[in-house]
Structures are given as structure tokens and as C-alpha cells.
Write a structure and sequence with these properties.
Blueprint lengths: L1 H35 L2 E8 L6 H10 L9 E8 L1 H9 L6 E3 L4 H9 L8 E6 L1 E4 L10 H8 L10 E4 L5 H12 L3 H6 L3 E4 L2 H9 L5 E5 H7 L6 E3 L8 E7 L4 H11 L1 H9 L7
Parallel strand pairs: 1-2, 1-3, 6-7, 6-8
Antiparallel strand pairs: 3-10, 4-10, 5-8, 5-9
Length: 279
């Protein structure tokens, strides 16, 4: 009888040990699953970034110095900065907002309860005039203004700019034309075609739907535009297009990606794409 009790006791101990091992293995498995679980980083990006941001994301996700990149999915929505700002105010679930100006991130910062998360400048854009129907190789910015006001520039001649109220590149184009004292005249003769964002301006100009389009220099770098197809607008003739971003959902992936944007590797991508240094 004593031997049977000992056997039962031994069996019970073995069973408890097995259960403990099973529990430990289960915990370890759950921990491993949590570690390898895919995460999604959602970015709201200004339309002018559609050519450069995919390259930065590819570089970021293949960078061996960045841990767990294989478990991170990055989704990007491109639109005008004003439209994206309105979406975020309405509760759109973005983690990062990359604007084409400083105004919209600053407004979001003022609204945020977490004041430790502040806007940051990640690049500086350049404005260019683009045409596939009117060769520009013989023009300078000054002589181009003469062309805009000459007799050959008829009511049928069209120039497209992005909506100045929503798109920072459109605001800069308007400021440039105003500084040259021709914005009101072009607007009065209905020569200005307003697009929703800089991407739409590019499409208008690229397809010849308008004679000229004020676009981002980066868009022209992306398509390897011919020298006779564009003029880079002198940067001193319009307000600096400083592009700020802000973290909306303060997570580890969001912080890591925004750090990468401002790193030497990220800035190299911007420089190659036709942007100006932020310092």
C-alpha cells in the first residue's frame, strides 16, 4: 500500500512538472507570436512626396541596422496637405503626417494633449515651371514673365497651380506670381487653372492639358525631364517650402521611421530627388 502511494505521488509530481513545462512553452510561444506579429504604419503624405517616399520606405525596410523591418507594413496615402489635415482632424487613423508646409503640423501640435511630440522639418521643396508644349530652354524667369504678358499669351493660354488654400506648392506659386505683379492679371483673364494638389498640376502639364504648370522640382527629377521642358524658379523669389511632419500616434515604429527620414540616409534620398537641404 505504501509503495502504491509513493507511485501515485511520483506520478502526480511528474504530471505537475509536465503541466508547468506546457504552460512555460505556451507562454514562450505567445511571446514569440507577439514579437513576430505584423504591425502597420500608416502615413499621410503630401502629394509631392509620391516620387521620393517609396524609395525611402524601400531603403528603410531593407536597412540591416533597423530591427524587425520584416514585420512592419507601411501604408501611405497621398493627397494635398490641407485635405490630409482635414482627414486627421476628422479622426483618420494615421500614425504620421508628412505635410508640404509647416502650418498644418503646427496646428495639429497645438491641438495635441501630448506636448512632448512636436513637428519636425524633414526637407525643403523647390518650385519649377514645367511645359511639354512650350520649349523653355531660351527663357529665363524674367523673360518668361514677359512671355506671360505678351500679345502671344492669349486667353487660350493656360497656367496651372495647385490650390493655394490646400497645397503649399500652390501657395508658393501664387506668392511668386504676386511678387512679379502678374497674378491678378493672369487670374482676371482666366489663364490660371487651379488643381487640387501638386500631383494634379503635374498631370495637367505633362499631358499638355495646360501650357505651363508650377510643379515640384522633385517631380521633374523623377521623370528625367529634358532641360528645355522646365525652369527652376529662383528660391529667393518665393517663401521657402519647408516641409514639416508630426507623429500622430506615438508608437515605436512611428518614432523610428521619422528618425530615419532625418538621418543621413534619408536626407540623401531627398537630395537625389531634387529637394534642398533642411539646414
Amino acid at each position: 500500500m505504501g509503495r502504491s502511494l509513493a507511485a501515485i505521488s511520483t506520478s502526480a509530481c511528474l504530471l505537475l512538472a509536465l503541466n508547468a513545462c506546457t504552460a512555460d512553452n505556451s507562454t514562450n510561444a505567445e511571446s514569440a507570436t507577439a514579437t513576430t506579429e505584423h504591425q502597420t504604419l500608416r502615413i499621410a503624405a503630401a502629394a509631392n512626396l509620391s516620387d521620393v517616399l517609396p524609395n525611402i520606405i524601400d531603403s528603410y525596410q531593407t536597412d540591416s541596422n533597423m530591427p524587425n523591418q520584416g514585420n512592419l507594413d507601411i501604408e501611405v496615402t497621398y493627397a494635398s496637405s490641407g485635405k490630409l489635415y482635414a482627414q486627421i482632424k476628422a479622426g483618420a487613423p494615421y500614425d504620421i503626417f508628412l505635410s508640404a508646409n509647416q502650418e498644418f503640423p503646427a496646428k495639429l501640435s497645438d491641438d495635441k494633449r501630448d506636448k512632448s511630440v512636436q513637428p519636425f522639418t524633414y526637407t525643403r521643396g523647390q518650385l519649377a515651371l514645367y511645359s511639354v508644349t512650350k520649349p523653355l530652354n531660351d527663357f529665363t524667369p524674367a523673360s518668361l514673365l514677359d512671355a506671360f504678358t505678351s500679345a502671344s499669351f492669349t486667353d487660350d493660354s493656360k497656367i496651372s497651380i495647385a490650390n493655394p488654400e490646400l497645397a503649399p506648392y500652390g501657395a508658393s506659386a501664387k506668392a511668386y506670381l504676386q511678387s512679379q505683379k502678374i497674378y491678378e492679371k493672369l487670374n482676371a483673364q482666366k489663364s490660371l487653372i487651379q488643381a487640387e494638389n501638386i500631383g494634379q498640376v503635374f498631370q495637367y502639364a505633362h499631358t499638355g492639358s495646360v501650357d505651363y504648370g508650377f510643379v515640384a522640382q522633385s517631380q521633374l527629377v523623377a521623370i528625367k525631364a529634358k532641360p528645355e521642358q522646365f525652369i527652376t524658379v529662383p528660391k529667393a523669389s518665393y517663401p521657402a517650402i519647408l516641409q514639416d511632419g508630426i507623429v500622430i500616434n506615438n508608437t515605436v515604429p512611428a518614432a523610428a521611421f521619422t528618425d530615419y527620414l532625418r538621418s543621413d540616409a534619408g536626407q540623401q534620398h531627398f537630395a537625389q530627388a531634387g529637394y534642398l537641404p533642411i539646414q
